[in-house]
Amino acid sequence: MNILDFGNAFFSDSAHWHGYDGIPQRFWEHVQYSLLALAVAAAIGLPVGLLTGHTGRGGNALALIANAARALPSFGLLVLAVLSIGFGLLPVMIPLVVLAVPPILVTTYEAVRSVDPSPVDAARGMGMHESRILLQVELPVALPLILSGLRSAAIQIVSTATIAAYVSLGGLGRYIVDGLYQRDYEKVVGGATLVAVLALITLAVFWAAGRFAVSPGVRRR
Amino acid sequence: MIRIDSVTKRYPDGTVAVDRLSLEIPDRSITVLVGPSGCGKTTTLRMINRMVEPTEGTILLDGEDIQGQPVTTLRRSMGYVIQNAGLFQHRTIVDNIATVPRMLGWGKQRARERAAELMERVGLDTALAKRYPYQLSGGQQQRVGVARALAADPPVLLMDEPFSAVDPVVRKGLQDELLRLQDELGKTIVFVTHDIDEAIKLGTMVAVLREGGRLAQYAPPAELLSAPADGFVEDFLGADRGIRRLSFFASAELDLTTDAVVPADATAERIAAVKAPHLLVTDPDGRPLGWAERTGLTAGDIATDRLLPFGRPFVPGTDSLRVALDCAVLSPTGWAVAVDGGGRVTGVVSQQTIGEAIRAAHTESRADKAGAGVAE
């Protein structure tokens, strides 16, 4: 049997489509973990990135922290978190957030830094407050790059959220972990396919968000 | 009036950008700050709206220290135009222009109406209102920059090398437009440039700054050209300042002659009456056709296809002595052709006569200055 057959067998089995271990349930759990982790990471990364980008201060420290965070292995962090906190959602969120903050933080910082300084100078010269300069002059122009940072963070979260299953939580990782344990390769392939599909959906969502939120004057079409 | 009083800007590393500069900037006129790079002209401009804070000295706006009010209030009372316009690329043209009115709390509708009005004023097609900056040419963008600065009708306009990034033809258009606008609006404009020709063209008063931020000379452009304060100013003004100074003398009083102007169907007596070696031949409407040699002309039938070109004519009263002289120099006969607004010949004038007019104008301006000196 090849991969396609495994997948086919998994998705055509109607038993996999309902119940607490059904695809809709696991898919939804995965989406929830991912959204929560992305929201927390964005709540940390965006403000810090915007502020440091606007003032131009702390860029080196930022790069250092971000690189250090990138070097941390998610799985190792998960194990450490579980050992020190115990089972639950929090120890799963820690590695996901640590994973997602660096791309958000660094691209947001870079995006704001790379905004053409002359409109900022003009805005300041016409008496605009600093907060407005950041939110109404720099942010709209930096938005495409900021969204790309959020997007890569989201993709990484979606693929890494499978580790939640190692610590008895749900999500699509359940199929992969259980399937490997039970030597049920249909399940493994099915789970992996679903993760890939969710990653593609994430891409599509960010593409749509870009179309909707970025000014045509910045998109240049 | 803006009064810069012994202002110094020293940076922490010890560099002095502006050194004890004092200037009185008159209301409702264009004051140009000009000088080589590193002369502190931009720094001086940016101290007026407190984008840079002086180390020493004060700047007074209508007698009040500019430090006395919140910085945003001060800046909103001054239009600010920079090189490359600095437009907000995510906003449409109309919204760019409406920025300051919106900050001042105007309603959206009113701000947009005002923006549309300003687009017309600065010579922009209102069809561009919904476009984005990237869809406009450099010259158009700069017009938007000027309109945006004027939107809330501030009494003061600060312009930092606004036209340096556009090509010479567009730049000339923008300069003419600014002069026209200034005639209508009468703002107090402080204009920074490194281009001395731009300074002379636009300035009511010109402050020449030298490296290290010291004032070399502060004078009206004609005076700058006739009496540079020192070698630095003279060098900075460059060659042919004598010729350039002629731009400030009117050609209205030139002694024109119509003796040598004849219609193409002139009679033999008329041609014989001409003493000059060349005749300017005109069409029945009085428009110039070209120059003819007096000898060998047939009355009533001057061959208009063998005439010498008459070059570029000038309009006495509108054009300066510089233009008149240029016309005479370019003319193959050494005579300049004067026309009225409709292009009809009002007379011709020789290089020699223009030369006399120039000497007379020089004498007169020296006398004026001496007179003014006595009055003081």
TrEMBL record, chain A:
CDD domains: TM_PBP2
GO BP, sorted A to Z: glycine betaine transport; transmembrane transport
Pfam families, per database record: BPD_transp_1
Gene Ontology CC annotations of this record: plasma membrane
Keywords recorded for this protein, A-Z: Membrane, Transmembrane, Transmembrane helix, Transport
Transmembrane feature ranges: 33-54, 75-101, 157-177, 189-214
Main location: membrane
Family: Belongs to the binding-protein-dependent transport system permease family.
Full protein name: Osmoprotectant transport system permease protein
